[in-house]
Amino acid sequence: MNCYKHEDCHDIAVCAICGTGLCKVCENETTYRKNKRALCKKCNYNYGVEIEENYKLQSGKKTAVIIINAVFIIIGLVIFIINKFDLTGAIIMLACWCFGSYISSFFDNTVTTKNNKNSESIFSGPIQIIIAKVIGSLLGLILKLIIRAIFAPVLIIANFLGKIKIDRLIADNKIILEKIKV
Fold this sequence. Notes:
The chain is 66% helix and 4% strand. It is mostly helical. The protein has two domains: 39 residues, no CATH class; 125 residues, no CATH class. The chain starts with 12 loop residues before the first strand and ends with a helix.
């Protein structure tokens, strides 16, 4: 079989998606790879578009998490201030932060496409899993809620930085897609 682009060259690989023959030049020039295998120009472009759609979905979810957490942090702070910085206000504030973190966890779950592996959510980390197994499910749940409440402001920052990174990936991917446009 010959290369789809350079018909006078024999293929040394095939496109990982459509099976089109690729010569050494085409195999080396591939922008994206699937399972470490080269892609033809058309599949390269389509794969890049799919990656961009996945990045946009992740960016949207990060935005939702940031907004939800910010709203509940502000509500908690207002309640804390209204209660004149007493213990009751602090408990209600932490409860608001915990609730906001819990609600936002529905948006910050794993994102999967047919070409990408699962990415682990920040809410199912190894520390929380170990705590839940060692201490017991009820106490583990209580500790998990307390951890969420305490670290809610940190989660906003982490999600904001994650969104910035994803938005850069989207911009970089757009440049790549323009270069390989079919």
